[in-house]
Amino acid sequence: MRIETERLIISEMTMDMAMDVHKNSLDEDIRRFVPDEVFETIEEAQEIIEFIMSQYGSVDGPLIYALITKEDDKNIGYVQLVPIGEGKWEIGYHVAKVYTGNGYATEAVKAFLPVISEQVGITEVYGIRLLENVASGRVLEKCGFETFFTGEGPYHDGVYEIDKSVWKK
Fold it and tell me: Which domain holds residue 93?
């Protein structure tokens, strides 16, 4: 898969991205909001990229793609579709802290959703976020997700105040 937007290329990950994946995973937002996506070493990043690459071409997931800036060819994060059970899928995304606030996540998600939903054969994608992650909520809203639940619920390793929304094709 390769999707081009005005400022980004969304592409399959490759082993030569390990250093960027490692560095991008260390910022405070990842540690705070998705701690299971922190890769403390380059070797950890290489292992996860190897797994990610093994998922391309399947519809099992997770399906994770790099975000590369067109302007300077920088790997600034990822966008993903992850199975959450019962035939349901969740969107995920991260833009490295130094690049946040520029609309990259919204641009990526808007371009990614129609393509990946067609590829996987689904008509709904869920967005689940910690309520305190306001920026993620804005991305989901701008991308057409509609909130259907706000309150206490399971999130990664515990129960937190969360927001659940859905995008429909």
Answer: 2-122
